[in-house]
Amino acid sequence: MAMTDAQHAARLLAQRAHEVGRSSGQERHGLLRWLGCWRLTRSVTAELDMPWRDEASGERSGWRQRTAYSDGEFAFGVDYQVCRECGLGWVEQPYTVPEFERCGLASAGLAALRAEYPGLAWHTLGGHFAESRGFWAAVGAGVTGAYEQRRLCPHVSRAERREARPAGRSWPG
Ligand SMILES: [Zn+2]
């Protein structure tokens, strides 16, 4: 099956998952020279402008979301939470936009998180649907914790409750 432009861009993006929210001009120059191909150069430039980002989760208060954008388009996101005290990390609901699927974005994003928080055991909060078991087995191979289901530790759930308290919210209007 031929790779689409989107999939090609997503594969290159997956290779840069360790570069979060920054790109230096110098790096870009070197890459462009190395590639020496205008068409590729253009797509790589677009990716450097839209790197991986670390954002607040839109769904879970107190959680972060690691995201990847390809050409300004949201391509991948996974919620995560860590507790250094317990040496635990959780990831939840990795999601890849269908046109960018099977390009390694999810496994690259998870690997980048593990590299940024070394020494943690990694888990998921919820159970795994039957269709995602193969994915978790693949990305969890050799990973401490193996992304097996595990409840949040008290430190993290306390922080969640604190942030979720309605009194702390302000409503527009
Ligand atoms: Zn903890």
Give the distinct bound molecules.
Answer: zinc ion
CATH architecture: 3-Layer(aba) Sandwich
Mean residue pLDDT: 81
CATH class wording:
Alpha Beta
Count, helices: 6
C-alpha Rg, in Å?
A: 18 Å
**Fraction of residues in β-strands:** 15-25%
Oligomeric state, counting identical vs distinct chains? single chain
**Any idea of the CATH topology?**
Aminopeptidase
Low-confidence blocks of residues: 22-29, 37-48, 167-173
Helix content: 25-40%
Task: Count the beta strands.
Answer: 6
Q: List the secondary-structure elements in sequence, H or E.
A: HHHEEEEHEHEH
Can you tell me the number of structural domains? 1
How does the major sheet shape up?
6 strands, mixed
* Morphology call: globular
Structural class from helices and strands? alpha/beta
The N- and C-terminal alpha carbons lie at a distance of 52 Å
Strand sequence of the main sheet, in spatial order? 1-2-3-4-5-6
Can you characterise this structure?
The chain has 173 residues and is an alpha/beta fold. It has a single domain (5-168), classed as Aminopeptidase, CATH 3.40.630. It contains 6 helices and 6 strands. Strands 1-2-3-4-5-6 form a 6-stranded mixed beta sheet. Helix 1 packs parallel to helix 4 (105-116) and helix 2 packs antiparallel against helix 3 (38-49). It is globular, with a radius of gyration of 18 Å. The N and C termini lie far apart (52 Å). Zinc ion binds next to helix 6.
